[in-house]
Amino acid sequence: MGVVLCASEALEEGGKACVFDVLAWGQPARAFVLRVDAAVVSYLNRCVHVPTEMDWQEGQFLDGDRRFIVCSIHGASYDPADGRCVGGPCGRGRLTALSVREEGGQVTWYPSEHIRPVFEDGPDAPAPACAPAG
Ligand code: FES
Predict the structure, then answer these.
(1) CA of 46 to the centre of ligand 1 (A)
(2) Which ligand 1 atom lies nearest to the CA of residue 50?
(3) Quick one: which of 51, 27, 37, 33 has its CA closest to 97?
(4) For labeling, which of 6, 21, 64, 118 is most exposed (least CB within 10 Å)?
(5) Taking 70 as the threshold, does the pLDDT of residue 8 lie above it?
(6) Hey, whose CA ends up nearest to atom 4 of ligand 1?
(7) Residue 84 placed within a domain
(8) Gap from CA of 99 to ligand 1 centroid (Å)
């Protein structure tokens, strides 16, 4: 079942990402979703070089040209289209992608076996929506 993250219009082309909490392999982590080249893409907020969050300010993942996702720690660059490392100390690594789709004016995440919502469905579960990135 999909998890609605945000409205489509919340993600501007080349703009800030929405950052949201997940459980990755059972551990608390963060992920982000952003729009670049008209496509909505989502990755775990975890650099391949050192497993740390990459945004220097929450939601700021893109370089000045809005072309690559850049880690603020040592400058690893990733292709937003597929998460592949294209420069810097990330070698042959690749960001961990999350499956997202745009449908009905909303951006929906489809969790995998290993990357799950923090709150599973239930009567008391808070809405696991993506926090606006300010
Ligand atoms: S931690 Fe991301 S480039 Fe080093």
Answers:
(1) 9
(2) 1
(3) 33
(4) 64
(5) yes
(6) 74
(7) yes
(8) 23
> Quick one: which atom of ligand 1 is closest to the CA of 88?
3
| Residues 128, 108: Cα–Cα separation, whole Å | 11
- Per cent of the chain over pLDDT 90 is 84
pTM of structure: 0.91
CA distance 47 to 70: 9
Q: Give the residue numbers spanning the domain of 26.
A: 3-117
Q: What is the CATH number of the domain that holds 30?
A: 2.102.10.10
Write the pLDDT tens digit of every residue in 24-60.
999 999 999 999 999 999 999 999 999 999 998 989 9
Nearest CA to ligand 1 atom 1: 50
Does 123 map to a domain? no
Q: Does 113 fall in a domain?
A: yes
CB-count exposure of residue 109 (10 Å: 0-12, 13-18, 19+): buried
Number of domains in the chain: 1
The stretch 113-131 carries a mean pLDDT of 70
- Can you read off the two tokens belonging to residue 12? 């501007």
Residue 4 has pLDDT above 70, yes or no: yes
Atom of ligand 1 nearest to the CA of 54: 2
